[in-house]
Amino acid sequence: MGKFQLDLNEGISEHVSFDQYLRGKSGSSERQKRMLKLLKTAMTQELSQRQRDCMQFYYFEQRPVKEIAGMLQLRPTTVYKHLKRGRCILKKVCRYL
């Protein structure tokens, strides 16, 4: 794991959720694309394959944990652990002001 650092807070109002920001309800589309690219880069460089898969299915494809568990042949509790660890890693990597 490298010393990659990412600032996701640029230009985001504290009243706008990250999901709303990415879906175009706030900010420019160019900034949104850049933020999503940086997030995916951080996921690729910092997370394990299982953590990446779980985060991709859960957050980007909005699949339920039980479905993810079935797809990856894991128990739901294991999926929850991968999601939690992935969030912790990304939180350390991302700098929030």
In summary, what is this structure?
The protein is an all-alpha fold. It is built from five helices and no strands.
Note down, in words, how this protein is organized.
There is one protein chain. The protein is mostly helical. The chain has a single domain (18-93), classed as Winged helix-like DNA-binding domain superfamily/Winged helix DNA-binding domain (Arc Repressor Mutant, subunit A). Helix content is 63%, strand content 0%. Helix 4 packs across helix 5 (76-93). The protein is globular. The two termini are 23 Å apart. 12% of the residues are buried.
Ordered list of secondary-structure elements with their pairings:
Layout: H1 18-22, H2 29-46, H3 49-60, H4 65-72, H5 76-93
CATH homologous superfamily annotation: Winged helix-like DNA-binding domain superfamily/Winged helix DNA-binding domain
Low-pLDDT ranges:
10-16
Number of domains: 1
Order of helices and strands: HHHHH
